[in-house]
Design a protein that fits this description.
The complex is a heterodimer of chains A (about 425) and B (about 350).
Chain A lengths: L1 H15 L1 H6 L13 E7 L5 H14 L4 H4 E7 L4 H13 L4 E4 L8 H9 L3 E5 L9 E4 L5 H12 L4 E7 L5 H14 L5 E8 L4 H14 L5 E4 L3 H11 L7 E2 L4 H8 L1 H5 L5 E3 L5 H13 L12 E3 L4 E3 L42 H6 L49
Parallel strand pairs in A: 1-2, 1-3, 3-4, 4-5, 5-11, 6-7, 6-8, 8-9
Antiparallel strand pairs in A: 10-12
Chain B lengths: L1 H11 L4 H28 L10 H26 L7 H16 L6 H24 L5 H20 L9 H8 L1 E2 L2 E2 H19 L1 H11 L1 H6 L4 H27 L11 H10 L11 H21 L3 H19 L1 H14 L1
Antiparallel strand pairs in B: 1-2
Helix pairs in contact in B: 1-2, 2-13, 3-8, 3-11, 3-12, 3-13, 4-5, 4-6, 4-11, 5-6, 5-11, 7-11, 8-9, 9-11, 12-13, 13-14
The chains are: A alpha/beta (about 425), B mainly alpha (about 350).
């Protein structure tokens, strides 16, 4: 394989003359026949807003100059089965990929093929979900403490006392476990907090709505809801059960949820909470770091230090600000009703890391007219703490794994 | 019903009369048992939470169960003619996605959009039906293939993010209450009455029963069995599209996976309700009972707070017990045992 790649690079250099020689001094040296970097975008499945937005961001960036002339991006959707993604990675390696930017389906099952890809000189970049193979880069918010911070915010809103629901993600998923463990670390400190129902909502609005409605049948007097993605469905279920009563609720980044948190009518009947969680923008950040390494503008990190933390979005109700245009400008962080669906995940933008993007990028994968790829700020890349089973194998989590970063306890346990 | 069935079996093949008559009483017992079991579960659940066993819990079950009842009716007709409709999940999604994107948050043009959306779904069902009836493609494969195609079309059409909102009239209806009972529960009642009449007391339903009982005999008797099979699939897609429309109204929007959680429960509801998975036997009231039993079970399991694994095991266990206990073979077996002892 390596011989093949080198042979191709040499042939290419010979074809293009000395000009190409200067470029091919980088870590990866293979390019497609037309001299572009061959990059694969490998997805799990494309059936919800989050996955589509994350993929669209990468597509939009790849179509923005100068990447539009230097990158050939190929999208591959593998479904929900790790085995399918393994064989897709294999064929990408065989086709001479320079880099793979991917949402990995499993944190452990892909390790062997990821290692093979690294050995073949392919840059491996994972976004949002992670792999424990240390040669891959993990760009993720997972370590940023979504579970414990939102749990503390909910406890604060409830003044340390009340019955709550946990609306979780997908059973057996490492991300769901990490979030829930962090949250329970906080809830367990407060004897006044009672988890009366815990259900899996599969990170989906509709499932969350129906599961919450079922839980409300037995506990109409619930005092608060701690939710992962799909949180807007929980609000709809509360309204369905009783239009005159809402409760404090924490959740992720859907536009509908942010609008609800900022709605004065809802605030009057009891809504309070914070919007945090998984940003689709991680994919774009991963892609830009990868391209900077490929283009020789950034040094590759040594193995074992390739876990990079994406900062946790944190928008309490009072901080919600509507955007007037098609991008996050002037500190805005949500779109007016009707402009995007309520399930649209707002955190597609990041004015510092991804100033190239606008609404059309997230919804349709189109580049922003006139935009050019900007270099990442010098301090953009921050190391993530070790978390065994999530981003490393034989490692120890830091002692203060669940320490609060976004909120302080206003009630004593 | 009873008379006609007897005449039918007399005229076609010499199946033992005794079983045929025994079956009808068995069917009746099944329906009574399954509703009894559902009500008993609701009452017994008071032990779990004081809010349970109340009218408001029954209201939630009827409301959430109505979606399953809608799509299980169509599934029941397809199963009646010895088929299986695996495209239900995709057609629900199609109905929901079209509702959200075409209505786009306005009541304008509702009178032609609703028929157009349901018409698109009927078209999908008709294609499945033609494949099964005339090209002899196994129903399992045909509906799975059509389902995949429809799902992919939805994915391409929405680019992964379904946009728009259903008409305010529709979402308003799903929120509305008459005499302090949610409006969709009245709709459920009307639907159950129409469905029962259609399946068990109309000429159309009796012809479907005949085709399911013995397609060859039905053909010899001069029934257009191909056309009847196609119409069963078309009605199933119509019901699934209607379910998608109602779900979009309930949630005020559509997602691409909104139909997934209805496919297997729709089959389970039909079978738990006393219909034969092999076709030719069953009634809609039983299916309604099956759907409500499954919804009740899910509601109680959510409240119990067990680990997810245990929840799923209990769900499977109760379905199995219901199936074994409520089969008419079990009744026949018991009757036989008593006879032997006597």
């Amino acid at each position: 394989m390596n011989f093949f790649k080198t042979a191709r690079a040499v042939a290419l250099a010979a074809l293009l003359g000395t000009g190409a020689h200067a470029v091919s001094t980088n870590e990866a040296s293979a390019k497609t026949a037309d001299g572009k970097w061959l990059i694969y975008l490998s997805l799990s499945y494309s059936g919800n807003s989050w996955q589509s937005e994350a993929a669209n961001i990468v597509k939009a960036l790849a179509a923005t100059p100068p990447f539009s002339d230097t990158v050939e991006l190929v999208e591959v959707i593998s479904g929900t089965d790790p085995q399918a993604q393994i064989s897709d990675y294999e064929s990408m390696i065989a086709k001479g990929a320079d880099g793979i930017v991917s949402f990995p389906i499993s944190s452990t099952a892909l390790n062997r093929v990821v290692k093979r890809a690294c050995d073949a000189g392919v840059l491996m970049f994972m976004y949002d979900a992670t792999v424990t193979e240390q040669c891959a880069y993990n760009i993720s918010y997972i370590t940023s403490g979504f579970g414990e911070n939102t749990a503390q915010a909910l406890v604060n809103a409830l003044k340390g006392k009340g019955k709550i629901f946990l609306s979780r993600g997908v059973p057996g998923n490492s991300v769901d476990d990490r979030h829930t463990n962090g949250a329970m670390h906080i809830f367990n400190q407060y004897p006044g907090i009672e988890v009366v129902a815990e259900y899996y909502s599969y990170w989906d609005d509709r499932t969350t709505q129906q599961e919450t409605a079922k839980a409300l049948a037995s506990h109409p007097d619930v005092d608060g809801i701690w939710a992962q993605a799909g949180e807007f469905g929980a609000i709809q279920a509360l309204q369905q059960a009783n239009p005159d009563r809402l409760v404090p609720i924490t959740g992720e980044n859907s536009n509908g949820f942010r609008l609800a948190l900022a709605n004065p009518d809802y605030q009057k009947i009891g809504i309070d909470g914070v919007s945090a969680g998984s940003p689709p923008a991680q994919s774009g950040f991963a892609f830009k770091i990868m391209m900077e390494i490929l283009n020789g503008k950034r040094d590759a990190l040594p193995e074992g230090q390739r876990n990079i933390e994406y900062p946790l979005p944190w928008v309490p109700g009072a901080a919600v600000k509507l955007c007037e245009g098609d991008a996050f400008e002037n500190g805005c962080n949500a779109f007016p009703e009707g402009k995007v669906p309520s399930s649209f995940v707002t955190e597609v933008f990041n004015p510092e890391l991804l100033p190239e993007l606008s609404l059309a990028s997230a919804l349709e994968g189109k580049p922003t007219p006139g935009a050019e790829i900007q270099p990442l700020p010098a301090d953009a890349v921050k190391a993530a703490p070790n978390e065994p089973g999530i981003n490393c194998r034989k490692c120890d989590a830091p002692a203060d794994l669940y320490h609060l970063t976004k909120v302080e306890a206003t009630v004593k346990p | 019903m009873m008379q006609e069935n007897e005449i039918m079996s007399d005229a076609t093949m010499d199946i033992e009369d005794k079983r045929s008559s025994a079956r009808i009483s068995g069917e009746f017992v099944t329906v009574v048992m399954i509703f009894g079991l559902t009500i008993a579960m609701i009452l017994a659940s008071r032990a779990i939470s004081p809010a349970f066993g109340s009218w408001s819990q029954a209201e939630t079950i009827l409301y959430l169960g109505s979606f399953l009842v809608f799509c299980a009716f169509g599934q029941g007709l397809v199963i009646l003619v010895r088929g299986l409709d695996l495209s239900i999940a995709s057609v629900i999604t199609l109905g929901g996605v079209l509702t959200a994107s075409l209505m786009n948050g306005s009541n304008e043009g509702l009178f032609y959009l609703v028929p157009a959306i349901l018409g698109a779904c009927v078209l999908v069902g008709t294609i499945s039906g033609i494949g099964v009836a005339y090209f002899r493609i196994p129903p399992f494969i045909m509906t799975m293939a059509v389902g995949l195609i429809v799902y992919s079309l939805c994915l391409g059409f929405t680019q992964g993010t379904p946009r728009g909102y259903p008409a305010p009239f529709l979402s308003g209806f799903m929120q509305a209450k008459f005499l302090s009972i949610p409006a969709p529960i009245y709709l459920l009642l009307v639907f159950v009455i129409i469905g029962t009449v259609l399946q068990s007391y109309s000429a159309f339903g009796r012809k479907l029963n005949a085709v399911g009982n013995n397609p060859l005999a039905a053909y010899i008797a001069g029934l257009p069995s191909g056309l009847l099979i196609v119409s069963a699939y078309a009605v199933s897609a119509l019901c699934a599209g209607f379910t998608g429309m109602m779900l979009a109204g309930y949630a005020n929007g559509a997602t691409l996976r909104m139909g997934d959680s209805y496919l297997l429960p729709s089959i389970a509801a039909v079978v738990v309700g006393g219909s034969s998975i092999l076709g030719g036997q069953g009634n809609f009231v039983g299916t309604v009972g099956g759907a409500l039993l499954l919804t009740t079970l899910a509601t109680i399991l959510t409240a119990l707070g067990f680990e997810q694994g245990w929840k799923t095991i209990m769900e499977g266990g109760v379905i199995l017990i219901a199936l074994i206990a409520l089969r008419d073979e079990s009744f026949a077996f018991l009757r036989e045992q008593f006879r032997k002892r006597g």
